[in-house]
Amino acid sequence: MKFFIPAAGFGTRMKELTRDLPKPLLPVNGIPLIYYSLFQAWVQNAEGAVINLHFYGDKIREELRNFKPFPIYFSEEKKEILGTAGGIRTGLERAGWMGETISVVNPDFLYLPEKGFKIVATPRTFSADCALYLLPQPQNASYTGLNLEGDRIRFGTGDLFYVGIGILESSVLEPIEPETYADL
Question: Nucleotidyl transferase domain spans which residues (predicted)?
Answer without folding.
Answer: 7-111
